[in-house]
Design brief:
The chain is built from 3 helices and no strands. By secondary structure, the chain is mostly helical. The N terminus is likely disordered. Helix 1 packs across helix 2. It comes from Aureobasidium melanogenum.
Length: 131
């Protein structure tokens, strides 16, 4: 029985050493992959910050207006200009939708008076039903 303990004893640590080497190399591989991912993400962040600076510079007023050089102030002004543009676009879209609704109602009235379908009136005026 003592011989069994001696013979099995050297192999048991050998298996655990191999197991720890395998898991250690797996961890190293995973750690390397994570480091590569972190480097890629840091590069992406740097690129995005560069794009942000370019956009802020493009949207900021000209230097003739004696704009402060603070990047955050310039960024805020650029965002304000963008928000103003968005509000203008929304207002124009609402006006377009109102005009389109009125046109659809008028075509409905015309179709009702003629006793035909709205699609026929739309085709007569050259309007595609999906418009």
């Amino acid at each position: 029985m003592a011989e069994d303990n001696l013979s099995s004893s050297p192999t048991a640590p050998l298996k655990s050493n191999m197991s720890s080497k395998t898991s250690s190399s797996g961890r190293d591989t995973q750690l390397d992959a994570l480091r590569a991912r972190q480097a890629a993400l840091e590069a992406t962040v740097a690129e995005l910050l560069s794009q942000r600076t370019s956009l802020v510079n493009a949207l900021s007023p000209t230097p003739d207006t004696q704009e402060p050089e603070d990047t955050e102030t310039r960024a805020k002004l650029a965002v304000d200009a963008a928000n103003t543009k968005i509000k203008s676009q929304i207002k124009q879209l609402q006006q377009y939708n109102d005009i389109k609704d009125i046109g659809t109602q008028l075509m409905g009235i015309i179709a009702e008076k003629r006793g035909c379908r709205i699609i026929e009136v739309q085709e007569e005026f050259g309007i595609i039903p999906d418009d």
